[in-house]
Amino acid sequence: MTVAAETADLPATDFDAIVVGAGFGGMYMLYRLREQGMRVRVLEAGSSVGGTWFWNRYPGARVDTETMFYSYQFSDELQQEWDWSERYPSRDELWAYARHVADRFDLWPDMQFDTRVAAATWDEDSLSWTVETESGDRLSSRYVVMATGCLSSFNVPKFPGLESFAGDVYHTARWPEDGVDFTGRRVAVIGTGSSGVQTIPVVAEQAAHLTVFQRTPNYVIPAHNRPLDPDEVAKIRANYPALRAQARQTFSGNIFELGGPSALAVSEEERNAEYERRWETGGLAFMAAYADFMTSEAANETASEFVRGKIREIVKDPETAELLCPRQLFMCKRLCVGTDYYETYNRDNVDLIDVNASPIEEIVPEGIRAGGKVYEIDALVLATGFDAMTGALNRIDICGVGGSSLRDLWADGPRAYLGLMVANFPNLFTITGPGSPSVLTNMIPSIEQHVDWVADCLAHMDAQGAARIEPEASAQDGWVAHVNEVADLSMRSSCESWYLGSNIEGKTRVFMPYIGGFPAYVRKCEEIVDAGYAGFDMR
Ligand code: N01
């Protein structure tokens, strides 16, 4: 029992904390709170740990952040002992890592799987939450931590006739555990974001024929994935603390080699040589070539045109190449990293359909009718993304003070203090919630920073004998205004993307993550703590 509960003489709860989600956020939250002596239960909808890496098992799924840094750092033993095999490991390896963490820190006994949370209701008298599962179980706790993930509520667009399709329908984020054999089958993929870009080349190798339905072409930088070199691994392991500290000082929590301040400050020759070098190195570090991609359209256009040039070089059919050339600002949508993505369109068994010219009219039993023509297929893959950042939270019926509904309060866009807590929802924390850097950064360090903040906050409350914490409305308003203000400074908030919610029909467009950078955000969180949890009402 926490000191807070003793001093306030509150009714007992089933747990001190309920954590929703057993991905990287939920697992580490459990570890930290249990270390602090709290009774914790993790509730997870899936049948194992791993979150994103449990669900996203489509062919070709792998991380696109360098894995020596896309990993936990809270335990040096863990980062020293776990052997990553590739620069960008596959989903299976990431899932194995998640299970290893659960084994190593004995997390399994406190986690409950195949349990989807349906509702969470705050009771002001007992200062506790009641969490209800879809199967009707009710559990009470002092605190709830939503570690529900930023990209976990998958999106199935309302294609008319979808249920009439005679073949199989798969979503990249809910792939069958035993995999799918596309050999000899005619397949369609709808969607060309990161998931589509990864799965299209792999499906193309297997399928008799693949038709890709593209709405917006994306910028795809080659991954140049490779096995990790043991010397490189040894060097990183020997310097892990310093390298992690260096990463924390970067905008995205990644150690990217930073290029110059402006793409326009150098000659075209020098700039293209820099782009060529980064293209050959591969990966997201292309984004760091010049610092003004998101503030100068002219600078941005130089990178866009470089990638378009590559597409025209790689893709043999000029018409297909033009269709694949993105027209929106570079990096405005999430940059994709792929393996043989553009090369795949040179295959005889692959066709590309532009749904702007040939809109998808309906799904019929034998396939997809688009632009008046039926494309006959045996299997349909939806790589159509997620209701990002708010989707997983809004699916749960979360009721705070006076029965106020989070879903209703967020109808015009999410409002949260630091992306950690929401006014009117005491003792409820969100890991990498809207208004925090989250998806604009390396996710695992961002998750760890949030988990540490929450764990330290609860330890502080315990020491103070406090039992209730909630952001002040004025502090939350101030933070939301700041999040919007910085978003407006960046061109990233100017185009259609899931960052804005524009991929979901009817969703209010608000740039949801905090774009001020990881170091500025962490400093802000620390200042607030140093000022005695400024902006929080703690009693
Ligand atoms: O989803 P997306 P995702 N008709 O939203 C199209 C992370 N991630 O699963 O762009 C036709 O990016 C949609 O078109 P448009 C990463 O952060 C990481 O691919 O909206 N098309 C788009 O092309 C990523 O950004 C990794 O015009 C429709 C696609 O579907 C995020 O997850 C791997 C449509 C959806 O793309 C989401 O990626 C995978 C419709 N009605 C994911 N509706 C790695 O680490 C949607 N689309 C490598």
> What small molecules does the structure contain?
3-acetylpyridine adenine dinucleotide
**Spatial separation of the terminal alpha carbons:** 17 Å
The backbone outline, from C-alpha atoms, is globular
Structural class based on helices, strands and sheet pairing: alpha/beta
Largest sheet: 8 strands, mixed
Quick check: average pLDDT? 96
The structural domain count equals: 2
Total of DSSP H or I helical runs spanning 4+ residues = 17
- The CATH superfamily of the largest domain is FAD/NAD(P)-binding domain
Radius of gyration: 24 Å
| CATH class placement of the largest domain | Alpha Beta
Task: List the uncertain runs.
Answer: 1-7
> Which strand-content bin applies to the residues?
15-25%
Count of strand segments? 20
CATH topology of the largest domain: FAD/NAD(P)-binding domain
Helix content: 25-40%
Essential attributes:
539 residues, alpha/beta, FAD/NAD(P)-binding domain, 2 domains, 8-stranded mixed beta sheet, 20 strands, 17% strand, globular, binds 3-acetylpyridine adenine dinucleotide
Topology:
Elements: H1 3-8, E1 15-20, H2 24-35, E2 40-43, H3 52-55, H4 76-81, H5 91-104, E3 111-112, E4 117-123, E5 128-133, E6 138-146, E7 168-171, E8 186-190, H6 194-206, E9 209-214, E10 220-222, H7 230-238, H8 240-248, H9 268-281, H10 297-314, H11 318-324, E11 336-338, H12 341-344, E12 350-354, E13 360-364, E14 367-370, E15 373-376, E16 379-382, H13 391-394, E17 397-399, H14 406-409, E18 428-430, H15 443-464, E19 469-471, H16 473-489, H17 518-530, E20 536-538
Parallel strand pairs: 1-2, 1-6, 2-3, 4-17, 6-18, 7-16, 8-9, 8-16, 9-12, 10-11
Antiparallel strand pairs: 4-5, 5-6, 13-14, 14-15, 19-20
Helix pairs in contact: 2-15, 10-11, 15-17
